[in-house]
Amino acid sequence: EGRRIAGKIFTKLNLRAIKQADGVFAITPRFEKILLNYGVKPGRIYVIYNGISFRDNRNIAGKEDHAGFNIINVGRLEKVKGQDLLLKAFKAANLPQAHLYIAGSGSQEADLKKLRQDLALTDQVTFTGFLTQAELRQLYRK
Question: Tens of pLDDT along 85-117?
Answer without folding.
Answer: 999 999 999 999 999 999 999 999 999 999 999
